[in-house]
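Progress against Task 2.4 (sequence-to-structure conversion) is shown through the following example record, which the project officer requested during the mid-term review.
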Amino acid sequence: MCTFNGARYLQAQLDSIASQTRPPDELVICDDCSSDETITIIENFARHSSFPVHLHLNDRNLGSTRNFEKATGLCSGELIVFADQDDVWKPEKLRLLEVEFAKRPDVGLVFSDAEIVDEKLHPVGQRMWNQVGFSEKQRQLIREGRALDVLLPGWSVTGATMAFRSKFRDLILPIPTSLPMIHDGWIALMVAAVAEVEFIDEPLILYRQHSEQQIGAPVGRVNEKTGVPLVEVIQRAANQQNSYSELTAIIDVVSQRLGRADNLMVPRETLADLESRRRHLRARSELPATLTGRFAVVLKELTSGRYHRYSNGFASASKDLVRGDRGANQSLKLKA
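Structure tokens generated for the chain above:
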């Protein structure tokens, strides 16, 4: 868990962790220079906890990504589970996550759905997966072992709902800060590149929305400043699209990191798939200005199957044929 001025909601989250039917083996907390009562709350909790609580105080503010990176490096268990300071876990969360890992040793990451609640933990009638567009089609792709198609680069697993095997820590760390994705998206993507991904089709946390959180900042059902409905804020954040250059940058960094993974068996097909994606992105971003030139490129991408594998098939191909500009600044969300 990473904390920063989280006193308002922290106690409820700590209590929910203490109430797990399968208690954690340890709780690692990195505090990012809180100035409220956060530290006092944690220290009081630690004195009465039935499991070890390791509190680390940063000597300077690291920001959420670097703080989660530090906390990840300090964990000693086989499975690492992230906890946000303002959510609430359902009692069976850790037990159900552990069961999924025990079923299949090839699974590297497990995540669940989340119930969206307001700041007072009142349900707003929505679940996270519905709002981020994690459809049945995407679930089937994961079941088929194609999690990379889902996680690169569209829908991202919410960090507060996931757990992963610590043996992938060296592959994940350090977390890049120059890419257009946050730390939980990076972690899910890297684990999916070398291991199987599983999901639990039920909400295991109450995902609290309030005015002080880092992303979205909705109050109750609407954003206090903009008046945007809560669920719309979540949808916007989850469905952000990346430019071709941004997507290529993600693929380049992932490929480089995998190339240095000496202690892991990186599937050859994963590296080949990433290179194939890169070629498709480059082809779409550098379309010729003339119709004849575009037709040749589009035909090549169609016959290779890349339009159907990585984009939206004939629909994407048709758009590329009729547009007269070079698509370098266009947005693309690869088909999941």
